[in-house]
Each structure stands twice: as C-alpha cells, then as structure tokens.
Specification:
The protein has 14 helices and 17 strands. The protein is of the alpha/beta class and 393 residues long.
C-alpha cells in the first residue's frame, strides 16, 4: 500500500486503532479482527478529519474504511444530519446503509437512512422526520429531497463519494457539485473508488484540501483468484452453451451479464425454458422487485442472476461461483467489475466470456491487452470436454 506515494505497512488490527468500546463491540460481533489495507490506511486520517482520496480493488473493505470513523464522529445527542454518503446505484446505497447500521448497533441514538429512486418518496420523508444523523443516498433522489426541503445538509461534517468514478461517469457531476456546495460546515471529504478517473481528480482539486492519497494495489494478497476463459460460440448456441457449462462446473450461484435490458430479459427467459432457475435485474425493473430478486439470489432460491452493468457494482454477495459475460462488455472497466463479483473473500472464482462475432472478439482482445487480464481461450473437444486452445498473443 502507498500513502502519498510512499510504501507503508498495510497490516493492522481494529483493537490497535483506539476505537470506542461501542465500535469494537460492533466489529467483534461481525467476527472481524484484522483490518484490510484500505482500512489501515484510511481510518486514522479520517478520524483526524483529513480529506482522503483512496483507490483500492473491489471487495477490499472500503465501506468500513470510511464507515468506522464516520460512526465514531457522530454525536447521538445532535439531531441534525452530520454525515453523508453518496453512491451511484440503489443497490450500493442499500448495502452501505446495512453495513453502517451494523456499525451503529451498540451506539445508541445513531440513525441511518437510505434515499434512492424507485422507492416512494413519502416513505423516505417519514424516515427523515425521525432525524437521522447519517444519510446514504443516490445523487438524483437526494436532489429531489433537497428541492422539497425534506432534508437539510447545512450541518453535515463528513462527506463520502463511494465508487466516485462510476458515479461521475453516470452523469452525476452537476448533481454532486451542487450537493457539495450546499454543505458549508463540511470538515472532510472522502473519495473512494476502484479507479481514479479524470472527473474524480477534478472534483478533488476543487473540493478537497491537501488530500491524503491512498493506493492499495491488486497484489497477490488482495487480487481475486479468478480463472478467466474465452469461448467462441455461435450466437444461436449461447444459451445452450451456458447451460452446458453450468452443469459441467456444478455452479450453484452465478451472475450472467448482458449489455442491454432487453437482452437481460431475453436471456432470463431462455434459461428458464431450459429449466434453470433465474431472474433478471436491471434499471427498468421496480426497485421492490429488484430487492426481492437479490434476496432470493442471496438465499439460494435462484441459481442464475441475469443482470446489466447496474449490478456490477455494490452487490455484497461473497459466494458467487461463476460469472458469465453473455455479452462482451462495451468498456474495459465493466469487465473488471463484472468478473469481480466472483472470487471474493479469498474464494476461487470462474469467469466465462462467450464470443459470437468478430467485433466481440476484437473487444475482448482489447480488454485483455488493456487490463492485463489472463483470459484463456478454451473449446469443447470431440468428447465434449472443455480443453485449452492455442494461446492468443
């Protein structure tokens, strides 16, 4: 790990961080002892109210890295909103809320609310009337509440942009800057992401003061153990090939990614026709249905979750056996975030990319070259076994 360009020790325990008994009790209840490198790096600076810009691989504990100091700083006797977390998607916002509530379990009087589109705004207004000190929100829905004057941010001290690059790429730049401008009491701003884009640096330059830069590389300690395969297949045979691979591998919990909402629905139908329990999740599906689908998937009631890239970030599911790129993604970073759904929590994962056209092949070659991914070409031999093809350059 590097802090401001200097290599530092990334080992540490929570009981060495000077945390309150309430926070330690919450952390111990989760069964955690060792802090992750991003937590070791970020927590001390956040506790000291410094601005932080942090880059770390997906699944390395970024939420606790900002959540622990955030909860420590909250005054339970103060009924104003004191901390704000902005997230790009509903799913990520809900996950952050759940983790922050776990941290607040023994800090009596601290309330967390989650604001996102797709849920009735009246229900959220009722929750806001209970005077939460921490708000987790997507930018669009937070702007709605600000226009209605149902939430006040003028006493906020800590702000975090989680998955900052994704949020800014999704076109939330103006919303984010408008929100930041409405918090005159802000003492520190944290920006956490798997990648640091030009837009992230622009926000940092305007809104952060001498930020501490923390970088956790994807080394052997935190690099996911994911076997990546490329399989050339006729378009009409993609669904059958996927079912064949599911049965050969005995995969019980799988995410399949498509590039469009229409293709997501279509693939879910094709797999259902073939006896595979599955459901689709994308932006046009009602939020309540999406949450029910995710719960079923986590509970093992659904074998395959078919998703657009809206689900590529923020899904806190540690035991996905395999990921299928039914469509080769349009962006290099989408590939990294898709396959990052498997191989989490030090488990072995598998990712298959099904290639059925020359443009898809070119895209995957580009992804391999620019991300440094070890994508191995495979094929079915005459016996029906999956064997390695000659390596591509």
């Amino acid at each position: 790990m590097e802090i401001n360009g200097q290599a530092v020790n990334d080992r540490g325990r929570y009981d060495q961080m000077g945390l309150s008994p309430q926070l330690m009790q919450a952390i111990e209840k989760k069964g955690y002892v060792e802090a992750t490198p991003i937590q070791v790096g970020a927590i001390p600076y956040f506790m000291d109210w410094q601005d932080v810009i942090a880059k770390a691989p997906t699944g390395t504990g970024k939420t606790f890295a900002f959540g622990i100091p955030m909860v420590e700083h909250v005054d339970p006797d103060n009924q104003e909103v004191q901390a704000l977390v902005l997230a790009p998607t509903r799913e990520l916002a809900i996950q952050i809320q759940d983790e922050l509530r776990d941290l607040c379990a023994f800090k009596e009087g601290v309330r967390v609310v989650c604001l996102y589109g797709g849920q009735p705004i009246d229900k959220q207004i009722t929750q806001l009337k209970k005077r939460p000190q921490i708000v987790v929100a997507t930018p669009g829905r937070l702007m709605d509440h600000m226009k209605r004057r149902t939430v006040s941010l003028d006493k906020v001290q800590t702000v975090v942009l989680d998955e900052a690059d994704r949020m800014l790429d999704m076109g939330f730049v103006q919303d984010v800057t408008h929100i930041l401008d409405k918090m005159p009491k802000r003492r520190n701003l944290g920006m956490f992401s798997a990648t640091i884009s030009r837009e992230v640096l622009d926000i940092s330059w305007v809104y952060q003061r001498q930020p501490v830069e923390i970088t956790v590389p994807a080394d052997q300690e935190n690099r996911p153990d994911i076997a990546q395969y490329r399989l050339e297949v006729d378009r009409s045979q993609k669904a059958d090939t996927m079912v064949r691979l599911l049965e050969m591998g005995g995969y019980e919990r799988v995410i399949a990614f498509c590039n469009t909402k229409n293709m997501t629905d279509r693939l879910a139908g094709l797999l259902s026709m073939r006896g595979v329990s599955c459901q689709a999740i994308h932006g046009d599906i009602q939020q309540s249905m999406r949450e029910k689908t995710l719960k079923k998937f986590r509970d093992g009631q659904i074998r395959v979750l078919v998703a657009t890239d809206v689900a590529a970030r923020g899904l806190d599911i540690d035991d996905v056996d395999a990921v299928f790129n039914y469509d080769v993604p349009d962006e290099n970073e989408y590939y990294i975030h898709r396959i990052g759904r498997t191989g989490r929590a030090k488990r072995h994962g598998v990712a298959f990319s099904l290639v059925s056209s020359v443009p898809e092949g070119v895209r995957l070659d580009d992804i391999k070259k620019n991300t440094g991914s070890d994508i191995r070409p495979v094929r079915f031999n005459e016996k029906g076994d999956l064997v390695a093809e000659a390596r591509r350059s």
